[in-house]
Specification:
Elements lengths: L17 H4 L32 H22 L3 H28 L2 H30 L1
């Protein structure tokens, strides 16, 4: 029966040798990377308010759909209700075009072509939708 032989244990570092063996810099020596100051701090919701954040985009779509539904429920199907609904629809389409463009920029090869064609088709459909909305709101 063999007894396992313990490996050599490294001697404990002296408290004065800690900075020499690690990459810590002694006090008074300039750092390689600057420390951010308070003036350069990002706002609290900067990461949330972005079209790259899927939760923010989903909440925008839900909000626009709610505005569209409330426009019909509160204003009816007359001119005012249709105006609110169509303006919301134009905003939804603009948001969809922006999301499709972001997807196109992230994708590669065939997927990029798909998202490009999808964004172009949304843009082409947006043109008559915008004219119809203008006609309904201001006519």
């Amino acid at each position: 029966m063999s007894v396992p032989i313990p490996e050599a244990i490294a001697p404990a570092a002296d408290s004065l040798d800690i900075g020499r063996d690690s990459d810590l810099q002694p006090m008074g020596k300039p750092m390689d990377t600057p420390v951010p100051t308070e003036g350069e701090r990002l706002p609290r919701f900067a990461g949330f308010i972005s079209l790259y954040n899927s939760r923010f985009v989903a909440s925008l779509f839900v909000g626009l759909i709610a505005v569209q539904a409330l426009g019909f429920l509160m204003l009816g199907t007359n001119r005012e209700g249709r105006s609110v609904s169509l303006v919301s629809l134009v905003a939804q389409n603009v948001l969809a075009i922006a999301c499709a463009w972001i997807a196109f920029r992230r994708a590669r090869d065939v997927a990029a072509r798909f998202w490009f064609l999808f964004a172009i088709s949304l843009l082409i459909l947006q043109i008559p939708q915008t004219f119809g909305t203008y006609d309904t709101v201001f006519a």
